[in-house]
Design brief:
alpha+beta; globular; Jelly Rolls; 8-stranded antiparallel beta sheet; single chain; 7-stranded antiparallel beta sheet; 2 domains; 10 helices
Amino acid sequence: MDELLRLPLRLAPNRVYRFYEGGVLMDRFRGMPEPRDTDHPEDWVGSVTPAINPPEQTYEGEGLSTVEIGGRSVALADLLKERPRDVAGSEIVERYGETTALLVKLLDAGSRLPLHVHPTREMARRIFDSQFGKAEAWAVVATRQVEGAPSPRIWLGFREDVSRDRLMSWIIEQDVEALRGAMNEVEVGPGDAVFVRPGLLHATGAGVFLVEAQEPTDFSIVAERVGYPITPEEAHMGLGWDTMIDIIDRGTVTADELETLCRRPERVAGSAREAWYEEDVWGTQSDPFFKGFRLVVEGQVEWPHAGRYAVNIVTGGSGVAETAYGALEIAAGDTFAVLAGTAPMIIRGEVEMLVTTPSFA
């Protein structure tokens, strides 16, 4: 087992039920035959976080990823419990305990998601007794035009300050037109990156396929129920709007802030001979929570994130991830984990990937 944990580990597909449909672009990305939309539009990658779903859609281990070790399937959560420092690294374990401090998803929305919000760490501690809130960030992989829907877009925060009473009225009365009409609406395409800080009301539109990095929780407070199979109790997670309304940031997201939240990756490293380069996807705004990098290899590179747990999604090309203990062939659509205890590694080939790691900030 010790030698096997020194290798990069392939992650098995891990589709999760949600109340909306999607998945066509994800199926194509994964190379699946007959791509189609289903009620499993998310793939939780490198997950040690259980999914929260209705009882009839819940099974033991739902949302938890598995890796291939020595020809057998092992739950990453079990591996973490058995070898926390080898998986997550000493710094993460000492700070947070038995966790990777990270959840990564592939998410393909076949319809517009409802407007919803996630708590800050401070609110999560107070309301849910959780050390993690739910900061999240998106990297758009591909888009499609869904019949009857506008071009692919997102909604993020309010254009102007909204009073508590007005926001409460919109939510209780389900005045969705007023809610959406008060928000920033941004068209997106492949390569766009968005940071969704906790507290910002948001939604992805139909036809957006993205990689999502987030804190390892499944807390969602839903402000919009019309047209979705969500009960009033489920919308506020049974805690009432008098409590949950204060999770929502009612302040203005200015044009300058919106430009920071919605950005393009910026180059931060590379070789003199251009054998590889790396881009910071979400910038310093994600630093307290996680980091995301777009790694492009056209030759070979020594793995630039040694000693850190990383979840990797191969977005283009093909290559090999190799250590002294063996090699893992990788190609577009593959996902794999690099444990904190993985041996020194080289990536060879012509390959692009999105690398996400927990933050040490």
